[in-house]
Design goal:
The protein has twelve helices and eleven strands. The chain is α/β, with parallel strands linked by helices. It has two domains: 3-67 and 211-318, Alpha-Beta Barrel (TIM Barrel), CATH 3.20.20; 72-88 and 98-164, no CATH class. Helix 1 (15-28) runs parallel beside helix 12 (303-318).
């Protein structure tokens, strides 16, 4: 059965609110949860971006759900530190933690002052980080000098089983590359033909039989007008091509781009509807495409109502799929 999870968006909401909403999501019937890992919000109006790793310890202690995080090692985070953090959570909460690794976005990673390289160089750096982290989880003492430098690093607290490493991909090209090294794939919702291309690229380049995860951006409210208002106010940035969105550095830049967006431009990227049966049908289509776990991100501030409504009206019907 496909797991349906709750996405906690640190770049939108305070960590205390997110903790309470995540607890409520588990009580409402969501199977699992994941969170973002931002230093900076997308928009200056969002106003939050807490440290996700502190929050994960509290959230995993407060619930019994599996959790994951999307992370970009190699810039503001050294891979040995992320390997240690992941190993600690996997030790404390066995088989409940996974991590998705991607090449990052300048809005979060530029803060250390390092050169922000083009995508091929970022991919090479990411693969070095993955290999370093896996070697540390295997108990090895690691010395590595490449794009990332590690000297005589060893983890002293190791889980019985290392966390699954998902490759984060927004394009078929990145998904195909991730198929060669990742334990699974995570991507975001897009038009069905584009989403199928991403899944097929992963499957056809080493990812066959590996788990698939999907983050789904939705905007649900009591009326479609309210749902569209929430989407337009909170989540304009997905209209940007991946190549552009990954290179902008400041929330003000995203806000400037947002001035060019019309409400209807969001329809391919955010599932906007007041109709819970429509949201259920969209999720059934994701399940039919083969996704093993789906994380629903309601982009509006109406989190309590979303959690209770989806728990009562959407999730039960999906259990029959």
């Amino acid at each position: 059965m496909t797991l349906i999870g709750y996405h906690a968006s640190h770049e939108q909401f305070s960590p205390g609110d997110l903790l309470q909403w995540t607890i409520a999501a588990g009580e409402a019937g969501f199977d699992c949860a994941m969170c973002s890992d931002h230093f900076t919000p997308w928009s200056e109006t969002q106003g939050h971006s807490a440290f996700a790793w502190s929050w994960l310890g509290a959230a995993m202690q407060a619930t019994t759900m599996p959790f994951g995080i999307v992370n970009a090692p190699g810039y503001r985070y050294h891979p040995a530190i992320i390997a240690q953090a992941a190993a600690t959570l996997a030790t404390m909460y066995p088989d409940r933690f996974w991590i998705a690794l991607g090449s990052g976005e300048a809005i979060n990673e530029h803060i250390t002052g390092e050169h922000w390289p083009p995508k091929p160089e970022r991919n090479a750096r990411l693969l070095e980080c993955v290999e370093i982290m896996r070697a540390l989880w295997a108990g090895e003492t690691v010395t590595h000098r490449g794009q990332v430098v590690v000297e005589d690093a060893r983890l002293w607290t190791l889980p019985a089983r290392p966390p699954l490493v998902f490759g984060a991909a927004l394009t078929p090209e990145t998904a195909a590359w991730a198929g060669s090294w990742a334990d699974g794939l995570i991507t975001v919702n897009s038009p069905p033909d584009q989403l199928r291309q991403i899944v097929d690229a992963f499957h056809n380049h080493g990812g066959a039989g590996k788990p698939l995860a999907l983050q789904v951006h939705v905007s649900w409210a009591n009326t479609v007008e309210e749902a569209r208002h929430h989407a337009f106010n909170e989540w304009k940035y997905p209209i940007l091509p991946a190549s552009a969105g990954q290179d902008l550095r400041y929330p003000a830049q995203f806000d400037q781009v947002g001035k060019l967006v019309r409400p209807e431009d969001l329809d391919p990227f955010v599932r906007i509807s007041e109709d819970t049966s429509q949201h259920q049908e969209w999720l059934r289509q994701d399940i039919d495409m083969g996704f093993d776990r789906i994380f629903v991100h309601n982009v509006g501030p109406n989190q309590e109502a979303f959690i209770s409504t989806f728990g009562a009206r959407v999730l039960p019907g999906l259990r029959q799929v």
